[in-house]
Amino acid sequence: MPSDSSTLFVVGSVAAVSFIGAFGVSVGLARRKSPEAFSRNAVQGQVNPARLAMRALGFGTVLAVVGVSGLVLSIKYALGIKNASEFGDRIHKMVPDDARISNKKKTD
């Protein structure tokens, strides 16, 4: 079984590549649906900026939801986690005690 650091590296690499790929796909889809927005000869008044902004917001929302869902599922698969409490136990084992933030109030 691979070590935890190598597993996290692989998961992080897969997430980074998927984010870059998703960005390229979204730009390609936007270019295919409205090539006039990407034309060098387009005058600023020809393209409706509000419509273009709403399209970008929609693509961004879809990419964010899909990206985070993929990241969570890949971490779940890589660490072999079945539920949230098991995730908490696994993270408590991975993070040293010195790095944790205590919820208890200190009385001086």
UniProtKB/TrEMBL annotation:
Keyword presence, Cytoplasm: no
Cited InterPro entries: TMEM242 (IPR009792)
UniProt KW keywords: Membrane, Mitochondrion, Mitochondrion inner membrane, Transmembrane, Transmembrane helix
Localization annotation: Mitochondrion inner membrane
GO cellular component: mitochondrial inner membrane
Main location: mitochondrion
Regions that span the bilayer: 6-30, 56-79
Topological category with respect to the lipid bilayer: Multi-pass membrane protein
A Pfam family this chain is assigned to: DUF1358
Domain of life: Eukaryota
Job of this protein: Scaffold protein that participates in the c-ring assembly of mitochondrial ATP synthase (F(1)F(0) ATP synthase or complex V) by facilitating the membrane insertion and oligomer formation of the subunit c/ATP5MC3. Participates in the incorporation of the c-ring into vestigial complexes. Additionally influences the incorporation of subunits MT-ATP6, MT-ATP8, ATP5MJ, and ATP5MK in the ATP synthase.
Family classification: Belongs to the TMEM242 family.
PANTHER family membership: TRANSMEMBRANE PROTEIN 242 (PTHR13141)
Protein's recorded name: Transmembrane protein 242
